[in-house]
Amino acid sequence: METAQLLQKQIKNWIVLFIILLVLSGVTAFPLETELKLLNENASFLPIGLQQWISRVYAGVSETNQHYKFMAYGTDWLAFAHIVISIFFFGLLKDPVRNIFIIKAGMVSCIAVFPLAFIAGPVRGIPFYWQLIDCSFGVFGFLLLRFVYRKIKRLEIIEINNLSAVKLSAV
User: Fold this and answer.
1) Most buried among 22, 63, 95, 161, using CB within 10 Å?
2) Is the alpha carbon torsion for 101, 107, 113, 115 positive or negative?
3) In terms of Cα–Cα distance, which of 94, 105, 131, 72 is closest to 11?
4) Coil, strand or helix: which one is 1?
5) pTM value?
């Protein structure tokens, strides 16, 4: 049987992992051109269609940065947004039961990846397989948060039972 302490430790560990992954997925937007250059130079193991797409994206980012460097400011804000969003998850480290709404908001955000990818993707000329890659962030984020959500609900039941037992023993 799971104890409250064990559940709290597991919840904290999973939330710390989620925070780290969220921050890392954001900060990779800062050196975008450098990352794309490395990927483009070492993409021979990928399918030819993906190699061509990466080459095209690298050329677009590189040329844009060369002539309109200020456009990269948008990806700087994307990175910043990931960092800011991750800060909210610290509330779960303090009190996961009370702050479960953060998990719910995170799961809704993960689901919202799908309409964004499947609406904006075609409008922006993003290949379907790349839209699926973007959606994978929503899938994996949702699964991780749903897993943690269930642990928090079990912790809540344990806390309610412990509170009830304390009240009964006081009588």
Assistant:
1) 22
2) negative
3) 94
4) coil
5) 0.87
* Residue 150 in tokens: 């269930």
pLDDT tens digits, the chain, 171 residues: what are they?
Answer: 679 999 999 999 999 999 999 999 999 999 999 999 999 999 999 999 999 999 999 999 999 999 999 999 999 999 999 999 999 999 999 999 999 999 999 999 999 999 999 999 999 999 999 999 999 999 999 999 999 999 999 999 999 888 777 776 766
Kindly report the backbone phi and psi dihedral angles of residue 29, in degrees, each rounded to the nearest multiple of 5, phi listed first.
Answer: -75, -20
What 31-34 contacts at long range (C-beta under 8 Å, 24+ apart), as own/partner pairs, is 32/61, 32/72, 32/75, 33/58, 33/61, 33/62, 33/65, 33/72
Any idea which residue has 């456009």 for tokens? 71
How many C-alpha atoms does 37 have within 13 Å on its Cβ side?
A: 8
Tokens standing for 61?
């980012």
Residues 126, 124, 57, 111: is their CA dihedral positive or negative?
Answer: negative
The DSSP element (H or E) to which 95 belongs, if any, is none
Residue 27 tokens, joined: 């900060």
